[in-house]
Amino acid sequence: MEEIKVGLLGFGTIGAGVVKLLKQNSALLTEKTGTRISLKTIVDLDITTDRGVDTEGIILTRNADDVLTDPEISVIIELIGGYEPARSFALKAIAHGKHLVTANKALLAVHGEEIYAAAKENGVEVLFEAAVGGGIPVLSAIKGNMAGNRFSTVLGIVNGTCNYILTRMTQEGADFAEVLKSAQEMGYAEADPTFDIEGVDTAHKLCLLLSLCFGTRIDLKDVYSEGITSITSEDVDFAETFGYRIKLLAIGKMDGGKIEARVHPTMIPIDYPLADVHGVFNAVRLTGDFVGPVMFYGRGAGMEATASAVVGDIVDLSRSMCAGITRRCAPLGYLDGNVTTLPIKPMGEIVSKYYIRFQALDRPGVLARIAGALGARGISIASMLQSARSAADEVPIVIMTHEAREDDMRKALGEIDTFEVIRARSTFIRIEDNLE
């Protein structure tokens, strides 16, 4: 029986999950591929700590070249994360004729074009199902089963940390800082959670989704990113009052030949399926011209779910290799020469409905001044709510608008925030309730 030998870079949580799956389901994988998938070598700086998985028969080393240049190893799994040394290791593996399987969305969002070009030159494949949505098989579906569709939208809740925080704020009325601390203690958030809570991780994943859906190169710096640090329990409560929930949403839309590429807190209707994605779960919703709306839902992170996606890529490679096929599918699903660079729609041109919260002194004429400033920019009010006066003689005023241009909204709020009766910088959250 043919044997395909694999090397693993990175023996953290996900790496341990891969080892566990390959060992535990070895016979099943052979039944499905007709070959033995054998993990030969693991590379990590720490090769002494017990990960709670069986490593009998596997070489453990700190030297990456023991994997990258080993002629017996044909598939490299990169689970180091980050930009370097992951980029250098990936390129060296490819240069030695090895296929690459990675869960590293940051690496591909920033250096993907270089890695894909190197893979083409060396006749190997790059697979990265685990980079978006953990165990959810959304990328392979875009490249495979739904390849006959032109996509118009892709929306995603793809960061489990943020979704966990917003879920607890919604269900328990807890404050952001309190829930973040709890998430760190439970291991749902990193000690430095910046990439998660500021939307950077979600932007990395959106880059990959946009490239696969629209066949375009996406520069990370062109993706508008806004995190959840400014969301308060007050905003969560007001959202519920108006029939919405707040989610950190990755949004990609094709609009007149331009792409909307944005990540930010978003209010979506409570009765919409994405609003019911709670905790660390992820979901991606796609709209194709023939298939219509399709939603993928599942665990977006974790040892076993992510390992499932990594091993799925290895199985895909194994089947191709056993059939004597290389580069059966280009990394982005489009033939390399057909990947274009579509323009990104400037954020100021985005049209959306808005939730706005003002903290104002309770004085006659305040509402009229606010409405006048909004109206002067062509922004009309759909509904309004004013809460009870506080001890400081201040009231929160919440306004829901009809559709308006982002640039007009920002200019109007910039003017309103200068009013002497406004006691704090205004808060606004975009609303998405037309999601077809």
UniProtKB/TrEMBL annotation:
Transmembrane segments: none annotated. The keyword Amino-acid biosynthesis applies. The active site is at K205. Residues 355-434 form the ACT domain. Its EC number is 1.1.1.3. It catalyses: L-homoserine + NADP(+) = L-aspartate 4-semialdehyde + NADPH + H(+). Pathway: Amino-acid biosynthesis; L-threonine biosynthesis; L-threonine from L-aspartate: step 3/5; Amino-acid biosynthesis; L-methionine biosynthesis via de novo pathway; L-homoserine from L-aspartate: step 3/3. Pfam families: ACT, Homoserine_dh, NAD_binding_3. L-homoserine binds at E190. Keywords: Amino-acid biosynthesis, Methionine biosynthesis, NADP, Oxidoreductase, Threonine biosynthesis. NADP(+) binds at L9, G10, F11, G12, T13, I14, G15, A16. NADPH binds at K105. GO terms for biological process: methionine biosynthetic process; threonine biosynthetic process. GO terms for molecular function: homoserine dehydrogenase activity; NADP binding. CDD domains: ACT_HSDH-Hom (cd04881). NCBIfam families: PRK06349.1 (NF004976). This is Homoserine dehydrogenase. It comes from Geomonas terrae.
